[in-house]
Write a structure and sequence with these properties.
Elements (H helix, E strand, L loop, with lengths): L2 E4 L4 H5 L2 H14 L4 E4 L13 E5 L2 E5 L7 H6 L11 E4 L4 H4 L17 H6 L4 H7 L3 H11 L11 H10 L6 E6 L8 H8 L1 H15 L3 E7 L3 H16 L15 E7 L8 H8 L23 E5 H5 L1 H7 L1 H5 L2 E2 L2 E2 L1 E8 L5 E6 L4 H8 L9 E6 L6 E3 L9 H6 L8 E6 L4 H15 L5 H18 L4 H18 L3 H5 L1 H10 L19
Parallel strand pairs: 1-2, 6-7, 6-9, 7-8, 12-16
Antiparallel strand pairs: 1-3, 3-4, 4-5, 10-11, 12-13, 14-15, 14-16
The structure holds flavin mononucleotide and iron/sulfur cluster.
């Protein structure tokens, strides 16, 4: 009887040699005349264990990792196909603490199924949400998503149901669903993992969104740096179309919905929804002034829902299990689960889906295991390059939109980047301003000019020139950028800068190693 072996085809696993390991396993099986079925699954999200090889046994799937090509022969020698012991053995996959402690709703199938098998998808509760949706009135779908408490996972945390209702209520012969898969935040990879590990859940979520608001066409916008995700999504769309999940009659219903994958050249600002629409229309990624909101006048001037990958991929489970089921997870106004992406200098880096409400300390120390270097954690940047740096003193902050805002931070797309005690927070502040200067679309002055001036001011502080005055100027500049910028790129760049200054002021004061002052333009 054939034994099923799983080797991920996710980009993180590929970068760590998964293709070579898969080839070695296939070759070894041929050499030993063993009958195996090799499935290229998505990643389970435990990046430090990749490539993670799993074997289906009577007791469940048994994991080994991280596996290298040179380990393959010994794995076979030790009874890999029966899930027997080996130095790389991790036991039953589901019992690995990092995985066992999670609540996987959105990522329930990621790493479990064959990403391009619609059969496998159906066998693991796939399409149940869409099946329910096609039997409902569109307004009732919108109401269910609203009741679930789902908020946008792209960064702003705007209630998804309210956005959908605006588009639903706007009269137009043509409307669009746009999935924001630009994923530019540092330390984030949840969108990529879904696209590579469970593409049908995103297609299902987009189809439900289309039916709910009366849109028959969707676009998935991602970046050229995601070649594996693009290839996976394109194949999945083709399969879904052939199977009648997409097309003139979704699952044989009265509703039509189809979608295309579009690739941007890769600019951080093209993740901002209006710049994204410009890019999708073939223009330069320049931010549009609001109003009009995209919900009223979006892609090609038509009412448009723009949602992040995780927002849309969370809809199928809500439509399958109900709004109350989803809403029961979480705290305060942050309902449901959030896929934390733990990165940087951390021992156990990866994706951890959990209900809102864990404290930052629990995430970094207990789940992430502290730093990879073993040194003390100095700071954690939460929410991408525009997110604040949190010191250990704020590690009791629960992971919740409002709790983070109350500490002058944001949870953004839920990326966490950990730094040890060697991090220079002045350099990190400079990096934030420089990033803003490089990525600015240039439309408004506080961001375009302010970020460049910000770099210069920080350089003066680094040189120990008139420190107090320069800190005052920097603070004032940050206020101007925060309140005067047209979009959140310029508006949030002050967050990493001011948090670094507030919590790590000693790094901004003259130090023996202060560099001589150098003009930024040189
Ligand atoms: C500079 C900038 C970059 C952004 N990048 C992304 C991104 O990569 N992905 C994303 O989903 N949202 C991004 N956003 C947020 C989007 O503008 C928008 O709020 C989001 O796509 C809405 O979807 P949601 O409600 O599902 O979160 C960015 C915003 C700004 C200001
Ligand atoms: S804040 Fe920056 S990125 Fe946003 S519109 Fe202004 S110049 Fe463009």
């Amino acid at each position: 009887m054939s034994v099923t072996i799983y080797v991920p085809c996710d980009a993180a696993a590929l970068a760590l040699g998964a293709d070579q390991v898969a080839d070695a396993i296939a070759g070894e099986a041929v050499k030993r005349s063993l009958d195996i079925k090799l499935v290229r699954n998505g990643s389970r999200g435990m990046v430090w264990l990749e490539p993670l090889v799993e074997v289906a046994t009577d007791k469940g799937r048994v994991a080994y990792g991280p596996v290298e090509v040179s380990d393959v022969a010994s794995l076979f020698d030790n009874g890999l196909l029966e899930g027997k012991d080996h130095p790389l053995s991790l036991g039953l996959t589901e019992e690995i603490p990092f995985l066992k402690k999670q609540t996987r709703l959105t990522f329930a199938r990621c790493g479990v199924t064959d990403p391009l098998s619609l059969e496998d998808y159906r066998a693991h509760d796939g399409l149940k949400g869409l099946q329910n949706a096609v039997a409902m009135q569109p307004a009732d779908i919108v109401a269910q998503v609203t009741d679930s408490g789902l908020r946008g996972r792209g960064g702003a945390g705007f209630p998804t149901g309210i956005k959908w209702k605006t588009v639903h209520d706007t009269q137009s012969p043509r409307k669009y669903i746009v999935c924001n898969a630009d994923e530019g935040d540092s330390g984030t990879f949840a969108d990529r993992m879904i696209m590579e590990g469970d593409p049908f859940v995103l297609i299902e979520g987009m189809a439900i969104a289309g039916i709910a608001v009366g849109a028959t066409k969707g676009y998935l916008y991602t970046r050229s740096e995601y070649p594996h995700a693009i290839a996976m999504m394109e194949q999945a769309v083709e399969i879904a179309r052939k199977a009648g999940v997409l097309g003139a009659s979704v699952l044989g219903s009265r509703f039509a919905f189809d979608m295309e994958v579009r690739t941007g050249a890769g600019a951080y600002v093209c993740g901002e929804e209006t710049a994204l629409l410009e890019s999708l229309e073939g223009k330069r990624g320049l931010v549009r002034a609001k109003p009009p909101l995209p919900a009223h006048k979006g892609l090609f001037g038509k009412p448009t829902v723009i949602n992040n990958v995780i927002s849309l991929a969370s809809v199928p489970v809500i439509m399958d299990k109900g709004a109350a089921y989803y809403r029961d997870f979480g705290m305060g106004r942050s309902r449901g689960t959030i896929p934390l992406q733990i990165a940087g200098n951390v021992k156990y880096g990866g994706l951890f889906e959990t209900a809102f409400g864990l404290t930052l300390g629990e995430i970094v120390d207990d789940i992430g295991g502290g730093t990879a270097t073993g040194r003390p954690v100095k700071a954690v940047q939460v929410g991408g390059p525009l997110g604040a740096y949190f010191p250990r003193a704020l590690f009791d902050t629960p992971f919740d939109y409002e709790a983070f805002a109350a500490k002058d931070g944001l949870i953004g797309h839920a990326g966490l980047v950990v730094f040890d005690d060697r991090a220079d927070m002045l350099k990190q502040a400079r990096f934030a301003m420089e990033f803003c200067a490089i990525e600015s679309c240039g439309k408004c002055t506080p961001c375009r000019i302010g970020s460049t001036r910000g770099v210069e001011v920080i350089d003066r502080i680094a040189a120990g020139v008139e420190t107090d005055t320069q800190i005052e100027i920097l603070t004032d500049l940050c206020q101007t950028m925060k309140f005067g910028s047209l979009c959140a790129l310029g508006g949030f760049a002050p967050y990493p800068v001011m948090s670094a200054l507030t919590h790590f002021e000693e790094d901004f004061r003259p130090r023996p190693e202060s560099q001589p002052f150098v003009q930024a333009a040189e």
